[in-house]
Amino acid sequence: MNDRRRRGRRHYRRGLALGLACASLALTACGDPVIQRRRGVDRMTFLDDSALEPPDPEDIPPPPPRDRRQVRGAAPLVARCANEGGEHGRSVGRATDGELVQGCELPERGPGYVCRHPARFGTPFVVAALQAAAAQVVRVHGQGPELVIGALSADGGGPLRPHRSHQSGRDADVGLFALEGGGKVFRALRPSEFDVERTWTAISSLIRTGRVIYVFLDMDLQEPLYRYLERSDVDEATLQRLFQYPGGHDSKRGLIRHARGHRDHFHVRLSCGNDDGEDCLD
Ligand SMILES: [Zn+2]
């Protein structure tokens, strides 16, 4: 069986499993398993009923339209690339063994964020999603500490030390917000220092793209985030889909997973989308 057919089968099985889980949980907003199979993305679209407007570095974008079909319809977020010709950037291969063709450079500054890392190239979708997340934090919480964005991928992708992934323009490191002292540097946080509200606004904005495969965050920091959502009346089924916590480090559950070295930032990986080619591999 060739690679693509194998992938197709995997996506089909995953879609089917999700469909069954959705049916058994009677969640009205579950993702469509057919769409899941065909596109291999949108795994988390059932979490939210909003889409994101294309972010514009000049303005904070208006509130997102509340039509989930717009997310499914794969109208890609449009990035304002700093480099010419970045609009057609696409991810090739895997995050751990891939490249980035005509990557979009995240501008060093934009509404609500700063990124001084030299490796700040991603696919247009990923760059736009990060800009939208920063803008969303400003929209929800007002002016305050900026979202500090770290490494994405190198120009052209490929190996980026000391990371194993970050090779194909679909990974990004994002600083956590602290309750005191702003968010200006990557700083390891104790749970009591962690600004869960601002950080969740950024993470959830990314998840709402429907393209997040994983968020890596230390287990000790997952707990306060989990408790915050629990207090916010997020239902149990959604919490289970979102968090590895309270499972152990080896638990295979949840979109938000523990990984060492993620006390001062979270790592987000987005899936391949229609805007990437067939040679993009999740
Ligand atoms: Zn990372």
Description:
It is built from seven helices and eleven strands. By secondary structure, the chain is an alpha+beta fold. It folds into two domains: 1-40; 49-270, Muramoyl-pentapeptide Carboxypeptidase, domain 2, CATH 3.30.1380.10. It has a four-stranded mixed sheet with strand order 8-11-9-10, covered by helices on one side. A three-stranded mixed sheet has the order 4-5-7. The protein is globular and about 45 Å long. The two termini are 18 Å apart. Mean pLDDT is 74; it is low at 1-76. The site of zinc ion has 5 residues, from strand 8.
Summary, kept brief:
This protein has 282 residues and is an alpha+beta fold. It contains 7 helices and 11 strands.
Which compounds are bound in this model?
zinc ion
Tell me the strand order in the biggest sheet. 8-11-9-10
Portion of residues within helices: 25-40%
Number of domains: 2
List the helices and strands and how they pair.
Layout (H helix, E strand, L loop, with lengths): L2 H23 L7 H7 L28 H5 L17 E5 L2 E5 L2 E2 L3 E2 L2 E2 L6 E2 L1 H18 L5 E2 L22 E5 L20 H12 L4 E5 L2 H13 L4 H7 L13 E2 L7 E6 L12
Parallel strand pairs: 5-7, 9-10
Antiparallel strand pairs: 1-2, 3-6, 4-5, 8-11, 9-11
Question: Tags for this entry?
Answer:
282 residues, alpha+beta, Muramoyl-pentapeptide Carboxypeptidase, domain 2, 7 helices, globular, binds zinc ion
